[in-house]
Write a structure and sequence with these properties.
alpha+beta; Fructose-1,6-Bisphosphatase, Chain A, domain 1; D-Maltodextrin-Binding Protein, domain 2; eight-stranded mixed sheet; five-stranded mixed sheet; 10 helices
């Protein structure tokens, strides 16, 4: 005779799938006293477009949508077919959603004015970062930043709606298309990660309140550029090697950043003798990841100045980027500052 109520062993039947992205967004709506649901809907629009892009990526090898498109973008980079597809998918989702008045995309020369003067938000996006890795089946990603427009609703968009520093972001995130697909985002109240369950068509909270380790032993930099780097940066890289750091560099910004966010490390894309301003774009790459890094307890700098404090002057402005664990970013900055001090002293001696 059973004397206690029967409680099934759930571990034998399956596992709890947890909180969906949609439910999580609804739970957090009170974090935005200025919003009345539009920002929540905007995040859902981005998540939906990412599902579609994820499907296209997964079938790329079967549908002849890998490889080059035959054109170059404003960066002078050869567009991949999936670059174009992703750009269309995200732009279409943001247009139909109705919350956005303008989009800045890596794949478009100019601001995309959606002719929606009642839209409260501007989105800056890299629809498919690392797309040159598609054909070799390496992780790639999407990066996005969300800003509130500053001009009155109902009026046409103005340059000041677009040219905002990263510290004005209201949300930012990335999607990683890898062995699993993850959406990671912040709205200024911590960082949360969601893993896409393809059979259910839902993102589930898998990485709540993500925190970057204060330090780490991973450095991520393209060492093929070593001879084009400054003396201070070369010294820092040598310092990493002398301290037995692991070198990890995929060549896909989202993937490199995501790994270091979880495990602790520093990602570096510096200015070089050939590209003094670096390669990465401020508005839709560096700002978004810097916001996420800081919300997770990390840091981001151009080597001298906080990324989020840089005032943009052009749509596709580039910036050096040092981002990751707080201690490692501070150490790198120290090496660069020491180099600057030596250069200044040498200049003073020559003047004297």
């Amino acid at each position: 005779m059973r004397t206690k109520p029967y409680i099934p062993d759930n571990s034998a039947l399956g596992y709890s799938v947890g909180t969906t992205l949609d439910r999580f967004i609804k739970m957090k709506q009170d974090d935005f006293p200025f919003a009345s649901g539009e920002l929540s809907q905007l995040l859902r629009d981005i998540a939906l477009a990412a599902k579609i892009v994820n499907r296209e990526i997964n079938r790329a090898g079967l549908a002849n949508i890998g490889g080059a498109f035959g054109q170059t973008n404003v960066q002078g980079e050869e567009q991949q077919k999936l670059d174009v597809i992703a750009n269309i998918r995200f732009t279409r989702a943001l247009t139909k959603g109705g919350e956005v008045c303008a989009v800045v995309s890596e794949e478009d020369d100019e601001v995309i004015d959606l002719q929606n003067n009642s839209g409260k938000y501007v989105v800056a996006i890299d629809p498919l970062d690392g797309s040159s890795n598609i054909d070799v089946n390496i992780s790639i990603g999407t990066i996005f930043s969300i800003y509130r427009r500053v001009t009155p609703l109902g009026s046409p968009i103005q340059p000041e709606d677009i040219m905002q520093p990263g510290n004005k972001q209201v949300a930012a995130g990335y999607v990683l298309y890898g062995s699993s697909t993850m959406l990671v985002y912040t709205t200024g109240h911590g960082v949360n990660g969601f893993t896409y369950e393809q059979s259910l068509g839902e993102y589930f909270l898998s990485h709540p309140d993500m925190k970057a380790p204060a330090s780490g032993n991973i450095y991520s930099v393209n060492e093929g550029l070593y001879n084009q780097m400054s003396n201070g940066l070369q010294s820092y890289i040598n310092h990493c090697k002398e301290n037995n750091f692991s070198a990890r560099y995929i060549g896909s910004l989202v993937a490199d950043f995501h790994r270091n966010l979880l495990k602790g490390g520093i990602y570096i894309y510096p200015g070089t003798t050939k590209t003094p301003n670096g390669k990465l774009r401020l508005l839709y790459e560096a700002n978004a990841l810097a916001y996420i890094a800081e919300q997770a307890g990390g840091k981001a700098t151009d080597g001298h100045e906080r990324i989020l404090d840089i005032m943009p002057t052009s749509l596709h402005q580039r910036t050096p980027l040092f981002i990751g664990s707080e201690k490692l970013v501070d150490e790198a900055k120290t090496f660069l500052s020491e180099e600057a001090r030596v250069v200044d002293m040498a200049a003073g001696v020559q003047k004297g």
